[in-house]
Amino acid sequence: MKAIRRFTVRPVLPEPLRPLSELAHNLRWSWHAETRDLFQSVDPEAWGAAGCDPVRLLGRVRPARLAELSGDRRFRRRLNAVADDLDDYLSGDRWYQAQPEGLPRAVAYFSPEFGITAALPQYSGGLGILAGDHLKAASDLGVPLVGVGLLYRHGYFRQTLSRDGWQQEHYPVLDPNELPLTQVAEADGTPARVSLALPGGRALHARIWLAQVGRVPLLLLDSDVEENDLGARSVTDRLYGGGSEHRLLQEMLLGIGGVRAVRTYCRLTGHPEPEVFHTNEGHAGFLGLERIAELCARGLDFDAALESVRGGTVFTTHTPVPAGIDRFERDLIARHFGPDAELPGIETPRILALGTETYPGGEPNLFNMAVMGLRLAQRANGVSLLHGQVSREMFAGLWPGFDTEEVPITSVTNGVHAPTWVAPEVLRLGARKIGTQRAEDALAVGGSERWDSVADIPDQEIWELRRTLREQLVLEVRERLGASWRQRGAGNAELGWIDGVLDPDVLTIGFARRVPSYKRLTLMLRDQGRLRELLLHPERPVQIVVAGKAHPADDSGKRLVQELVRFADDARVRHRIVFLPDYGMAMAQRLYPGCDIWLNNPLRPLEACGTSGMKAALNGCLNLSVLDGWWDEWFRPDFGWAIPTADGTGLDVERRDDIEAAALYDLLEQRIAPRFYERGRGGLPDRWIQMVRQTLTLLGPKVLAGRMVREYVERLYAPAARSHRALTPDTAGELAGWKARVRDAWHAVSVDHVETTETTATAELGTTIGLRVRVGLGALTPDDVEVQAVSGRVDAQDRITDATIVPLKPAGTPDLEGHRLYEGQLSLDRTGPYGCTVRILPAHRLLASAAEVGVVALPAEDAGEGAGVLLR
């Protein structure tokens, strides 16, 4: 019989055990080993059955066991010690509190998904895991962050396989009352709500759930409330599901509803109001519109409110291709905003203009969420050095007239939260060498460029650790593989071979991620005969563990999964290569440490960052990757291998895959496997162990989320907070008026003539040449602009590279025609082909970038001396 009503029955903890409830509801347990060990000791069997989730565990423990523990003095001492440790963690000063004054009082961090723990399945892949690691690292550093997301009742899908290897999706219903969440309530105890207006007089209501991530509150909005009609209740049903309107409503709830939830939370708790709003990808971009509406309601006009909002907003793009950006029909946007829907105080054309693709090749009928995110943020970044470059190229059309390198999008390379991803055995080894507290600080806070103490760990201990982790992975794989085959319909009598799957002494390669086509799950299958030879080599075999999910609507991705599964099902190789379904955080935490090689072979440059290899590296796993994302930035032969990229312009995709797959096989056969199996005088693979040591010493400090969050604080959050404070209603109005005046007058701004004191085509290194430039400013004054000389080496097309910029100074008063003279000097500090030009930019004390206004004046072809000087 099916129940007609569902209840969650919570245990009543004896008074001495009450701290268990607080420990269970603060997600610090997900990265704090002592807290997890404490919960495991409550009931080891129930702990495993509860999926290592303390909230579920406490709902399963027998009252008799709780009574027994409440009388156990040793357990109570452990409990009190862990509770006291949490209290110290939550209340003590950390890195942020030791920084100079001026940092933001609070930062609101918005993301469509958060990967905190497998017990809270609100993530699909790298974007969510990165967001979760960002919150955890902010907590460890003491950064006053508030996370904002949605609570998906079905989470992301669970993956199984059919008998023939086809991916199947399942959407289990999540009950918030059974998750590590508490409901945000008003002072009278009623649930706190936020509401959005929908077309036709309807409304979208959502309650606010709180997940406490260490020191960081994470607010999750849930539309499954009785006040909503069926359509509105389903808005937060599943992550990345539904059609365009469904996605639009999710993103409106995340952005607009999220700001309202933050305001509600701060009002109820006294938490400082955020000075900086960080938009993690374009999905939350509507938060800027809500903040503009707030300011308009206080009397600011739209343009002044826009400048104020931009000053305190940071936008992070994770997408290296236009196809990965959410875009909506303009008519759909128009229907959901305006007098009869949401944000009635803002004219709909102003909203539509924010997302219009006003650049060559743009679609005028589509509303682009990333374009809106860039226009609503004064500061923006990509997530690796290479991705920053790709992003500047992708969005360069929004800043016409500027070289790609001047597009105001910087980069902060992603990092990973080491306490979450480092195996306990690795942490214990480090703690034995340098002490528990120093080891924890090195992983969580970072700050050192090297971990030199790794050099003191004997080779034997490193190798024994690597084998232990590999053996644990082998046992995990056999258990998961058996469960998968039983789900596919196999009986136990057919599965005796699983006990021989993988070998703890064989070189183990891991490959696990989402399965879009550009990540090339099946590149390893390009030459199946050669792959079989590698797997079955009599002296130097390799074994491969593969996992990954294709998007439910991506049949091409599902076919890639099926192709891999069918190869792995072959009785000749199934003991050497396996596909594990339902890749998630719990699996990943065992997979990364147990592999010797982490494989990544995307089509360059389509991997924005790719953090899975970072997590593997922190456990002493070596990377084998295409030079893309973070690996392009930090690769060194000391600690890994680079797969050569066949990126010639004349190559088609098929030929490129053939070449890169062959290079992959060559590396494995000729360099990687021989090094793994090579033994020195002491019977150990000395050169392999040295690479492991170098990975930990040199890569370890770089890949930390602590390093990443410190960069965000210092390079983006702190400047954004200063801009937020500087852009008062009066100064925001001044800046908006100045921008409007400059744009209206810019048509009359010109570089009319350029003269140099150098009359020959050659000059000696160290020569100083003078520049005299005649410019027209129209209705503008010298205070409104900066006239610059731009110089540097030139390429074969006379384009200036590695430019040096020197401001020129006004000389004298305007002539009778209103023209002005500017003068300055250039020092020729580089040899070879050298050139310079002149340009005029708007200048204002409140601009974050010279490109911000989006206008520039360059010399005409006949401005004199070839619009500059060229020396060869």
Automatic annotation (TrEMBL):
SUPFAM superfamilies in the cross-refs: UDP-Glycosyltransferase/glycogen phosphorylase
Gene3D superfamilies registered for this protein in UniProt: Glycogen Phosphorylase B (3.40.50.2000)
Cofactor(s) needed: pyridoxal 5'-phosphate
Record keyword Glycosyltransferase present: yes
A Pfam match: Phosphorylase
Residue ranges constituting the DUF3417 domain according to the UniProt record: 13-120
InterPro entries according to UniProt: Agluc_phsphrylas, Glyco_trans_35, Glycogen/Maltodextrin_Phosph, Glycogen_phosphorylase_DUF3417, Pyridoxal_P_attach_site
Assigned EC number: 2.4.1.1
Catalytic activity field: [(1->4)-alpha-D-glucosyl](n) + phosphate = [(1->4)-alpha-D-glucosyl](n-1) + alpha-D-glucose 1-phosphate
Entry keywords, A to Z: Allosteric enzyme, Carbohydrate metabolism, Glycosyltransferase, Pyridoxal phosphate, Transferase
Matches recorded under NCBIfam families: more_P_ylases
Its job: Phosphorylase is an important allosteric enzyme in carbohydrate metabolism. Enzymes from different sources differ in their regulatory mechanisms and in their natural substrates. However, all known phosphorylases share catalytic and structural properties.
The family this protein is said to belong to: Belongs to the glycogen phosphorylase family.
Name assigned to this protein: glycogen phosphorylase
Record lineage: Bacteria, Bacillati, Actinomycetota, Actinomycetes, Kitasatosporales
